[in-house]
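Question (not urgent): is this output format expected?
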Amino acid sequence: MSNIGKIEKREITQEMQESYLDYAMSVIISRALPDVRDGLKPVHRRILYAMHQMGLNSKAKFRKSATVVGETMGKYHPHGDLALYDSLTRMAQDFSMRYPLIDGQGNFGSIDGDSPAAMRYTESRLKSIGETLLLDIEKETVNFGPNYDGSRQEPLVLPSRIPQLLLNGSMGIAVGMATNIPPHNLREVLEAVISLIYKPEASTEDLMQFIHGPDFPTGGAIYDIQALTEAYTTGKGGIIVRGKANLEKDKIIISEIPYQVNKASLVERIAELVKDKKLPDIKDVRDESDREGMRIVLELKKDAFPQKILNKLYNYSDLQKSFHFNILALVNGLQPKILSLKDILEEFIKHRREVVARRTCFELKINQARLHILEGLQKALEHIDAVIKTIKQSVDKEQAAQNLIKKFGLTKLQAEAILEIKLQTLAGLERQKIEDELAEKRKLVEWLKNLLADSKKIDKVIIDELEEIKEKFGDERRTKVYKNKVAEFSEEDLVPNEKTIIALTKDGYIKRVNPKIYKVQRRGGRGLIGMTTKAEDIVINFLSCNTHDNLFFFTNTGKVFKLKAFEVPEGSRVARGRAIVNFLNLQNREEVSALIAIPQAEYPARNASQARLAMAGGLVMATKNGIIKKTKLEEFENIRGSGLIAIKLRKQDELKWVKAVQGSDEIILITSLGQAIRFKETDVRAMGRTAAGVIGIRLNKNDEVVIMDVINSQPKAGRPLADKLLTITNNGYGKRTDLKLYKIQKRGGKGIKAMKINNKNGKLVSALILNETIEELIVISQKGQIIRMKIKEISQMGRTTQGVKIMKLENDQVSKSTTIN
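Got this back:
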């Protein structure tokens, strides 16, 4: 009492540590983690016990769920009623629990994510299998403790006859730890328990002869027995779960989905994939599920490949997902521990042995007490006349009891039982019943004593009970288990490697189109609308590549980003495309100035098992002020989402062009006023990413570099000889010129004339290196007009000529051009 009101100083770190630890342990033990013995968290245990106390067994009338929630909350679980009701409804959902413990009447939610009806509308009672968790609880089989206010006792664990932790699994997030245990098949689990009782030395692999894997209430399929074995052995691991789909000629029918997947969300996701053209071959998505079962129908377009579409569904949607094991449970009700499959079964067997032993002790005590009474009654019936005379001669009940004890050697309990005996017991048949019951009790007491003395007999009782439950509740497995690993799909596996065209505008809109949509026209035509652009927006990058190629996006500020070509959304011929900022993390005033495609086979790989083809040359970059730089391709192996520095720029300069070189190539720079310089690639030494580069061409006043390209002067396998230079002006004039007319110089000079520039043909805007395999040209204007033509239709002329009209333009100018092999 003297310490009341006294303030004692304490280190805040110590106080925080102790308080947090107390809180963490409270969450771990009293809320989030299941007990390995009965597989239940406290909230579920309290709900089931409250229903048992209310007499809501499987044969009782349904009662309002609100009554159950109120009973549980008022007596055992002083938390929110909604949290209690959520726990109650989950134990009644056949899509959440492999073996529901509660029988629900009314709307208890759906696999589509629909919420249950309010607790005042639904009704519930225990299912038969739920009763098996509570059998013998009145027989002192488990320990009880005080409830939250000490007004009554509640069980600390249930005497469960089934390994509930494995049958229905469990999920929970505690403080610093979490558990995720899948459901299993009752018949398989009980067979494994029985086998382990007979063979305690059995390994987890031995037990997996009986337990083939999780058995989800929603069915589906599991892959990779090796990963499953690891998860069961270590208590941690992951497996792949797939839904079940039947392939028909013109449709895919999904009849099962992975565990914990929301069906409505899955259907919505598939519809989004169709809308985003990731599943363009699906023309209709319907959910035809009813009381008979699940049925999601995907109508396919003509000539679609169902298996390819199904593979995309596995990759893009939750029709395939991972389930990660984390078998964490409380051992002895106090210690959180990662358990293997064998550990769980051993803890359950240990629990059942204790329950059966305690039940046997309780029944032995009850039957011994009854036997004691029966022995006294038998002795009284053998001397009935003397017993009656003794009672008649006694003054009152207490004296009669004392006299009977002294005269016949009875105990107090026996004497009191004789005094309570009815006269009808003196009849012959009634006396025979007592003698028969006496013989039966003696036999039963002897059997119970022998049972307690022999652990093998206790195990036999456990096995018999398990066999009975297996016969009553056992069913067929719903989830198929495949030994092989599931085929992993990269996005490349789901996209055909085919020719495509990438177009990017100055305002940052990008799209991918099939080149077949542009029909070949004759030189001098008007072309087709190839891309709808906003006012004053122009197409600045336009290239032909394959869908599996790596796209490198270089910006005017000298940074580089990377995407796969197929990651650019495909659009129609006239579509504007998607904003590039949706794909690249560009900063303010940062624009993509160069776009190149590198085939995957040429991109260096770190994996030693892959063939590594390191490019001897790398990438050559050029700026508008005539600076040039070469960097090896491997410098760009790991490009972060935020990009990498590709070149250090001087003031008032911008990175404009990037090309791939092979070590023996030549480089040509061409300016807007028609000057060109050709020099060997080897004149530019390889530099690091952050280097600034060297002078490529010296510019006259008001001139700037408009084109940088690479000349293949030494043909190799798959690389034909470059022989022509195609130059195009902004007014639509173009020509082909023999490359022999451009002599090789040293870098850093002013170059020679490449085209006669005047008001008629305009300034030079595009130039392309040609070879014998290049047959067609695509030219795009600033307003998005596109023309596709044969290369041979463009006249071959000398260096200093102005060229011929290749595209008619009205209030428009040429922006870019590209070639098609």
